[in-house]
Amino acid sequence: MSGPLQGIRIVDMTTVLMGPYATQILGDLGADVIKVEPPAGDTVRDVGPRRNDGMAGIFLHANRSKRSIVLDLKQPAGREALLRLAADADVLIYNVRPQAMARLNLGYEDIAKINPRILYVGVYGYGQGGPYAAKSAYDDLIQGAVAIPSLAKAAGADLPRYAPSAMADRIVGLAAANAVSAGLLYRERTGEGQRVDVPMFETMAQFVLGDHMGGMTFEPPIGPSGYARILDHNRRPLSTKDGYLCVLFYNDKQWRQFFALVGQPDLMDSDPRFATIGERTKHIDALYRMVAEVMPTRTTAEWIAVLEAADMPVMQLHTIDSLLADPHLDAVGFFEVVEHPTEGVIRSMAVPSTWSKSSPEITLQAPRLGEHSAAVLAEAGYSTKDISKLAASGATVLAPSRQ
Fold first, then answer.
1. Pair (259, 301) in one structural domain
2. pLDDT digits over 69-85, tens only?
3. Is residue 4 part of a domain?
């Protein structure tokens, strides 16, 4: 292991996507991530295509670089085992509501008693100081709560609709990984652990409103909310003679070049609507209509050649299938075809960042349920006899170790 978080141990009590995505990032960065699962396993294990039960594609892409241990936390023996893991851990991260952790007697105060240096991280729906504190939260609900479907309709969709990605889960997962890294740095400097809460609603509200608060930023307001360029219904992949193309002309130089390409080189000087970025933003609909009208005059390949020759921003429109064959991703080694110990040949995605030192690496492929229960419990001081008793009581589940 050579990642920058080598030597950090994380007790990961998260399930589904948001928390597991965060801890996979931390695991790829070198942390020893112990995934604590209930006897039934993480529910996302069986979501989508799979060769074997409990090992679906979405699970494989959010749970590598981890070890799996099963603990029934409703049993005293299971809770005791969790406490023994937490006693030697640097981080405990969970994504159920804090009220559920309190019912298990696994709140921050309970954990800090046995390990005052621990970073205790909650990743859940809503901050605990408001009326939504006890509400359940899922990606779709949070997208709706921060107006993403309404923005889609304002931008031209027939009806409000969610983004076709678990966007809130993954964005908040990134925020949680950042919080863990910063919390560890603070502890390194001060020696002090602490509780950190990363609420979905507030995190996503900041994400969306950073673009769209607009004139409502000021008191009193000086204009409407909404970023006009992003909301314009012509802000979309544009039809060419034979397909679609993604273009974005933004600064003065790019718009000047575009106007020259379409035979109006003096338009920025003759039309005050297009003279500055501020005026162009006010009249973005007219500009985008102009671009949309001219794109069908050439093929996609012809536009790419012309625009790239002028060093102007352009990108082909991928589908998921064509993205998997993208030549750039192939050249940088983004996709790795690996042999999973139980699932056979799978396509894995590399760690996207590159480091001149302490390079992250994928330490393990996603584990089977309880694959590392025996090993992790042994590290926590349990004897072979003790582990067998835990398994017999149902407080843990053992799976054969992969060799």
1. yes
2. 999 999 999 999 999 99
3. no
